Amino acid sequence: QVQLVESGGGLVEAGASLRLSCTADKRSFSNYGMGWFRQAPGKERQFVASITFDVEATAYADSVKGRFTISRDIESRTVYLQMNSLKPEDTAVYYCAARWRRVVRNIGSVEYWGQGTQVTVSP
């Protein structure tokens, strides 16, 4: 297993930027497909972004495409979610997710979850 710890959430106003970080406790971090999901109050957890473990291909939900960027740093065992032009509808708990040697794209594809970090965007 791998433990994931998110950080970087906070309260910002619309149009602001945040960068979320997810650190893994294993040196085999590069063998995990990584991603971000979010869950707003009263809603189901939804896919936000993913990055493959092998070729670092990225994918994004339509709602964040062009505003969010997922990236990773192997040395620091960290995956990032750079969030720009934040909107109130981006308000949610953001969860880091991982799967061994597979892309993270849907809830069912996730093997490991972080505890989540709250992002709140004021109008």
Structure in a nutshell:
With 123 residues, the protein is an all-beta fold.
What order do the helices and strands come in, and which of them pair?
Layout: E1 4-7, E2 10-13, E3 18-24, E4 32-39, E5 46-51, E6 58-60, E7 68-73, E8 78-83, E9 92-100, E10 112-113, E11 117-122
Parallel strand pairs: 2-11
Antiparallel strand pairs: 1-3, 3-8, 4-5, 4-9, 5-6, 7-8, 9-10, 9-11
Overview of the structural elements:
Helices cover about 0% and strands about 50% of the residues. It is built from no helices and eleven strands. It has strands at about 5, 10-15, 20-25, 30-40, 45-50, 60, 70-75, 80-85, 90-100, 110-115, 115-120. It is mostly beta strands and about 120 residues long. The strands form two sheets. Strands 2, 4, 5, 6, 9, 10 and 11 form a seven-stranded mixed sheet that branches. A four-stranded antiparallel sheet has the order 1-3-8-7, with no helix packed on it.
Number of helices: 0
What is the overall pLDDT average?
95
**CA gyration radius, whole angstroms:** 13 Å
Strand content: over 45%
- Shape descriptor reads globular
**Cα distance, first to last residue?**
39 Å
Structural class: mainly beta
Q: Which stretches of 5+ consecutive residues score pLDDT under 50?
A: none
**What share of residues is helical?**
under 10%
